[in-house]
Design brief:
365 residues; mainly alpha; two-stranded antiparallel sheet; 13 helices; 77% helix
């Protein structure tokens, strides 16, 4: 038992943080903007730490079932955190673009941030890093289709008919993801795996690291559920603190969306970087591109269903700047992920696009 408590100390910290936030919410809000921002920053830190434990136990399950099921579990756990936080924030936020901006930020973080940095560092260390090019092509066309349907076409849908197109979008996303899952775990599962030769393992510093063996499958599932529940509870208080802390500061409108996307992407960044430095680029492609696809194709139907239920539509159509950035990103990804090998130059192109996204966000674009 002591060893379990030591390993899951972040969950204990999360429980303590949630309790403190519950009892001190009103005094903190009454103390002013500075106190609210400090409390929000602390909660964000605890949420990120908790999400790393959720990702760790998802990784435990992933090692037990193997690819492609493994990376699917990892990306789905991250998307579950993101959808939960988004759903909670929508209750307290009056921004009709929060969902759109979060999905856009997540795609920029996943493809340009995670994939770009991993390919850059991995390329500097190992040179050209192989992977199955079928996975990159499949992910790319799915992301393009999903974002086009849900975040470009809505610009041309009349406002009095949004609910019809919203219902269609839900059905389309479910149909796309249903077929994708059938491919990923069925006859085309080899698209998302790569057989590394023994010499590649040796060059990466020895055999592949053994799977973490912290607890049973049931224990991992239980901890994932507890972690997600704690994240949701803390996100509610975080929303209130950030709303008060940023009021009247002139902060970029999309800042909250970037925070949500960064929280969900934090564990994936660590997983992808570890894989890239071990010369396991297939895992990087699966995590980065799979997370982008899952964010779009799973977040959209959930949020659209909420919009239909409440009768309050969200603004899902991307701005011209966002559309251009997504277009450049997906074109670059289609070119870079076309030959079955990544290198530092390809990584740098995506990382520069990520830096561009950061600058545009700071400029409020």
């Amino acid at each position: 038992m002591p060893s379990v408590i030591k390993r899951e100390k972040f969950l204990l910290v999360a429980m303590l943080a949630a309790g403190l936030a519950f009892f001190t919410e009103h005094p903190v809000l009454a103390a002013g903007q500075v106190a609210a921002l400090i409390a929000a920053a602390l909660l964000i830190g605890v949420i990120v730490l908790t999400s790393t434990r959720v990702a760790h136990h998802a990784e435990v399950l992933a090692h037990k079932v193997g690819d492609p099921y493994g990376t699917m579990i990892l990306t789905l756990s991250a998307v579950a955190v993101e959808v939960l936080i988004l759903a909670i924030l929508m209750n307290s936020s009056n921004s009709p673009t929060l969902v759109r901006d979060t999905i856009y930020s997540a795609v920029m973080l996943d493809i340009n941030g995670i994939l770009g940095l991993a390919a850059l560092l991995g390329g500097l260390r190992h040179g050209e890093q192989p992977y199955n090019d079928n996975s990159g092509k499949t992910y790319g066309v799915m992301i393009l289709t999903a974002m086009g349907i849900s975040m470009v076409v809505p610009e041309f849908v009349p406002k009095d008919r949004w609910h019809y197109y919203s219902a269609f979008t839900i059905v389309a996303m479910i149909a796309l993801y249903g077929l994708f899952l059938r491919m990923q775990v069925g006859a085309h599962s080899y698209f998302f795996s790569y057989s590394y030769p023994r010499q590649t393992q040796a060059a990466a510093g020895g055999p592949a690291q053994p799977a973490p063996q912290h607890g049973s499958t049931a224990a991992s599932i239980t901890i994932i559920l507890i972690g997600v529940a704690l994240i949701g509870l803390m996100a509610e208080f975080m929303s209130a603190f950030i709303g008060t802390g940023l009021e009247g500061t002139g902060a970029p409108p999309a800042l909250m969306a970037v925070i949500v996307a960064a929280i969900s992407a934090a564990p994936e960044i660590l997983t992808a970087l570890r894989a890239a430095l071990r010369n396991r680029m297939q895992a990087v492609v699966n995590v980065a591109m799979g997370a982008s696809l899952s964010t779009v194709i799973l977040t959209v139907p959930v949020m659209e269903a909420i919009a239909l239920y409440t009768g309050q539509p969200f603004i899902m159509a991307m701005t011209p700047v966002q559309t251009v950035m997504v277009t450049i990103t997906l074109i670059a990804a289609a070119i870079n992920l076309n030959d079955g090998e990544t290198n530092a130059i390809e990584g740098m192109t995506h990382f520069v696009l990520f830096a561009t996204f950061v600058v545009l966000t700071l400029l409020g674009l």
